[in-house]
Amino acid sequence: MKNTQHHIRAFSQILSPNEIITAASDIAPFCLDQRKRYQGAAFAVLQPQSVAAVQAIMRYCHQHQIAVTPQGGNTSLCGGATPHAITKDQGIIVSLSRLNQMRHINLADNTITVDAGMILADVQQAAQRVNRYFPLSLASEGSCQIGGNIACNAGGLNVVRYGPMRQLVAGLEYVLANGELVSHLSPLHKNTTGYELYQQIIGSEGTLAIITGATLKLFAPPQSVLTAWLGLNEPATAIEALSVLKNHFGERLTSFELISDDALKLSARYSQQTLPTQAAWHVLLELTDSMSKVDLSESLYALLDQHQWLNTVIAQSETDRQHLWTLRENISAAQRQLGASIKHDIAMPITHIADFLAVTEQQLTAAFPEARLVVFGHLGDGSLHYNVFMGSVLSNDVYQYEAAINQLVYQQVLNHQGTIAAEHGIGQLKTHWLPLLRSKAELQWMQQQKQQLDPKGILNIGKVLPAIS
Ligand SMILES: Cc1cc2nc3c(=O)[nH]c(=O)nc-3n(C[C@H](O)[C@H](O)[C@H](O)COP(=O)(O)OP(=O)(O)OC[C@H]3O[C@@H](n4cnc5c(N)ncnc54)[C@H](O)[C@@H]3O)c2cc1C
What we know:
7-stranded antiparallel sheet, 16 helices, 16 strands, binds flavin-adenine dinucleotide
């Protein structure tokens, strides 16, 4: 305790009082994850308001070997932003929420440069104010931050057209574990000058550096938008529809979401909304064009007719569109209200998804008759949220089944050439599964990167790579 008091005094030499939180009751919310599953501890939360302050914090922590958990909006679904139990209360949280300003917009290069703590929805709005579009869109966009999105290589609803966060970053600024700043924010559309370190930082979940700023790509805003809901008998038909629409509409296919009927009914009850279609499976899709008055509906109607996908609702107004999207976006909240479940954030080649769904459900329900599946996700990019509720066990007691259920689900993911971490990352939830996905050579290379950039092992201990106690 003497040591932590000493460190707090040292932090107060480099930060202003409003950048330091030390009262246990104020620290507590930062130590609990979004799913209320991981409870960490920290002796202080620091909220630096400048890049120089982040550097000073890291220099000090490096020198005194203090564990640092970088935290953005704390919406991680795999315990990524919560201090690992191994750090006890001997570490700090660096919250980026006060480093949250827009720096500038560059219309010729079509980029926006922002502090890492800027909330995703605020970035979308800043782009909109200059008649541009920032396409990353997640149900947590009102609270997650750009730094967290980059650290997790976030995906979301528009990946089918614009790609995940990695494809939206045009430049990055970050502070290494020893406090050194690396800054490449100018929007170079071409740059081939050796190995690209910032690509390592994207998706590294706060284990290699603290991201302090980013230059992001902007796009022309969609002016013509067509939103449709299809009711289908089976996932194979959804995959066929995806292929047909991708081929016909090309880059205009912006979102293509698959929703099981159970997931829809859960969300509809929670949202107090009516069901758009009666079917075993549903697809919510959106077509967009940056030109106004482009008629997307005529071609869509013709295709639906040709393929006999007639259990269809097409949004006729913005209100209709919001109704359909609310049903999709409220699935997470509806599940949260229901209780705890065993979640899987998986992806695989789209061509394998129908078989995966059939085989896994059959095996799961045979082994666990009380299992209830809530399946939905971004079929357009091959990723699914595959969540298993266990009958009436709706508290955290459900995690007693997790190892056995994960074993079964992940084995099928591997059999179908997929990944167990599509867009939420590894965090502390899946560290022990990483060796299943990565070869020995890849794991060694990751350990070497970690050792090189964070030789004292202070950054986000126990995340991504298994903790060394
Ligand atoms: C309702 C809901 C829906 C979601 N839907 C999606 C979805 O569709 N697609 C998707 O990809 N994710 C989704 N997520 C997960 C989550 O919102 C994303 O992973 C998001 O990108 C995390 O951002 P954050 O700012 O909250 O990061 P945090 O949760 O604070 O942190 C996440 C990780 O990033 C690290 N980190 C945070 N900020 C920094 C920084 N500045 N520098 C270095 N490391 C940092 C943390 O240490 C941690 O490892 C959803 C979550 C919720 C609650």
